[in-house]
Amino acid sequence: VLLEPFVHQVGGHMSMMKYDEHTVCKPLVSQELSFYESLPLAMRQFTPQYKGIVSVHLRKDSLGNLTLIASPSLQAESRGRLDNTIGDSSVTIWHKCKWAASTSTGSEHTLVQWSHTQLSKTFKDRTDLQYRTDSLLEDANGNQPERNSYNPWGLHCHRQHLNRMSSKHNENKLHQFLLLENVVSKYNYPCILDLKMGTRQHGDDASEEKKARHIKKCEQSTSASLGVRICGMQVYQADTGHFLCKDKYYGRKLSPEGFRQTLRQFLCNGNHLRTDLLEPIILRLKALLSVIRKQSSYRFYSSSLLIIYDGQEHKENTAPLDNHLRFQKTHCTPSHGTNHSRVDVRMIDFAHTTFKGSQCNPTAYDGPDHGYIFGLENLIKILQNISE
């Protein structure tokens, strides 16, 4: 299987790849595997479904372009080989990727072709990134063309991993990747908020230097005051047809008030505030909160929480704006649609999660993760305030 870049990655530093329409994959970390293999039943509705392990290797073509190839047939035997490669969680990605776009001609389109210099220039000092989607004009048969949208953060992660990978490993080395459910596959325009949860981010295995770095990041951001900080975001703007993107550097600089405003912005589609989403998001967060309160010994250090909804609204919420409203749209006036849009809340990234009985971590904790609970409670409160 030729791995494609996962274009809806909004946060994190590991490069996520798309395995198929409903599956993403990421470099295997033994602690994360251990978490998924012993996942408490109550938590399963709040995590991506774990689908197994796959072996991946680098392939270089005659032009020096790198691609990643996954070998599903090796999946069964790959568990035996885990011990040899478990320490190495590096990954490579596409320097340039081509695949057949589903057009009538079936011709190949180069969808991503960014050189290192272009990437470096693009990511220098930019926290407010926008990316375009293809025009949404319908063709003669009333079909919309295929939409290709790219969040720049994913490309940023790809570039970093590529540099690391090509300098470290030869092409024949097999790498183990986790296969996980693609939790945004059912959305046409996935609006995603990536929140780093908890008051502490460093794992038990962190060096003193790393520990100090993480503690400082928490103290200087809303992690300390609210128990949650923004790590990445993409919101579809119905008025421009663009996604508005924010990255982790933007999130780190926010004050508690700035955090509240960004949360509001996440629910704003350029025309109005999606008030129809507030109640279902709050209910789902409350359900997660009651599950986390019951998980004794778990510490979800450095894990993220995704809040997801579809930027494409149901018809009854998309009445044309009159001039008065259009004038006000920069302030995002509330929409009063009654339809509860489908929302999702999922925990991701468990490379530093520890729990009693985990082989990877001898430190055992008592009771639930109070730092995580503190963050969830504050998140719910802020959303309730927006709702009121």
Automatic annotation (TrEMBL):
Matches recorded under PANTHER family: INOSITOL HEXAKISPHOSPHATE KINASE 3 (PTHR12400:SF40), INOSITOL POLYPHOSPHATE KINASE (PTHR12400)
Lineage of the organism: Eukaryota, Metazoa, Chordata, Craniata, Vertebrata
Stored Pfam families: IPK
Major enzyme class: transferase
Keywords, sorted A to Z: ATP-binding, Kinase, Nucleotide-binding, Transferase
A Gene Ontology cellular-component term: cytoplasm
EC id: 2.7.-.-
Organism from which the protein derives: Leptosomus discolor
Family, as annotated: Belongs to the inositol phosphokinase (IPK) family.
UniProt-listed Gene3D superfamilies: Inositol polyphosphate kinase (3.30.470.160)
Domain of life: Eukaryota
InterPro entries per UniProt: IPK, IPK_sf
GO molecular function: ATP binding; inositol hexakisphosphate kinase activity
UniProt name for this protein: Kinase
Gene Ontology biological process terms, A to Z: inositol phosphate biosynthetic process; phosphatidylinositol phosphate biosynthetic process
